[in-house]
Every structure is written in structure tokens, then in C-alpha cells.
Specification:
The protein has 5 helices and 5 strands, in the order αββαβαββαα. By secondary structure, the chain is of the alpha+beta class. It has a single domain, classed as Cytidine Deaminase, domain 2 (3-Layer(aba) Sandwich). Bound molecules: tetrahydrodeoxyuridine. Tetrahydrodeoxyuridine binds next to helix 2. Belongs to the cytidine and deoxycytidylate deaminase family. This enzyme scavenges exogenous and endogenous cytidine and 2'-deoxycytidine for UMP synthesis. Keywords: Hydrolase, Metal-binding, Zinc. It comes from Agrococcus jejuensis.
């Protein structure tokens, strides 16, 4: 069982928050996660004049994870511009689920929770595997 240094993850999320590009909402978001091999990956939101194509902080973090060699996420935290904990939006819970180690932990408004608690009965890779298997 990995011990999670939540203070270090929070600090990485705050550092990432400072890099946010959020000129439209003025709402900077930073997030950070611990990987199963001990790395810390982070991300910030990147907005766009075409509002709908804005990238959430989790998008940039997951891209950094994949581009940095991949791996699974074991613990995650997300903060606003005051360093207060934020819940990932619904879409980003799905993004996190795809790359989560079993039982991935998240810092939430109601304490530490698992990915399965914040995205129950998730649609994911095994859903597609099962469908393909039932088809053949
Ligand atoms: N945002 C994130 O970066 N992550 C979330 O999980 C929720 C929302 C960003 C998107 C947008 O740039 C700003 O917060 C306001 O919605």
C-alpha cells in the first residue's frame, strides 16, 4: 500500500494552478496526482476563446501522464486559486477513471474517497472488453 504525501500533492497542485491559462472564467484550476511508480504529474486548465474547447486541468495532467511514459494514478488532488480543494467535473472523473489504479484515492470536499465512490458503476475499458468478448 503506497503512503500518500497529501501535503506534497497539494503543493504540486498549487504550483500547477499558477500556470493556468484562464482569461475567460478567471477561475484557475491546478491538479496533481501520484503515479504507481512514485512520480507526481500535474496540470492546469487551458481555456480558449471558443469556450467549449477549454481544457480542464485534469486534461493537461492526463496528457502529461501519457506523454511522460504512462502509468496508473494512485492519488489525486485538485485546487482553486486559493488552494481550496475542488471536485473534478463529471467529464474529468471519467478521464481519471481511465488511468486510475484500482482504488485510486481523491481528496474531496467530504474527505478522502475512492474513484469508485465518485464515479460508481463507471463506463470504462472493461465495458468495451466485455462487449467485444460477448460479440465473438
Ligand atoms: N475546470 C477544470 O479545470 N477542472 C474541473 O474539474 C472543473 C472545471 C476549469 C474549466 C474552466 O477553465 C474553469 O474551470 C471554469 O469552469
Amino acid at each position: 500500500m503506497t503512503t500518500v504525501d497529501w501535503d506534497a500533492l497539494h503543493a504540486a497542485a498549487v504550483e500547477a494552478n499558477a500556470k493556468a491559462y484562464a482569461p475567460y472564467s478567471g477561475f484557475a484550476v491546478g491538479c496533481a496526482a501520484l503515479t504507481d511508480d512514485g512520480r507526481v504529474v500535474s496540470g492546469a486548465n487551458v481555456e480558449n476563446a471558443a469556450y467549449g474547447v477549454t481544457l480542464c486541468a485534469e486534461c493537461s495532467m492526463v496528457s502529461a501522464l501519457v506523454m511522460g511514459g504512462g502509468g496508473k494514478l494512485v492519488a489525486f488532488t485538485c485546487v482553486d486559486g486559493h488552494g481550496a480543494t475542488l471536485m473534478p467535473c463529471g467529464r474529468c472523473r471519467q478521464l481519471l477513471f481511465e488511468h486510475a489504479a484500482p482504488g485510486m484515492l481523491l481528496q474531496t470536499l467530504s474527505g478522502i474517497r475512492t474513484i469508485d465512490e465518485v464515479l460508481p458503476d463507471a463506463f470504462g475499458p472493461t465495458t468495451l472488453d466485455a462487449y467485444r468478448a460477448s460479440d465473438s
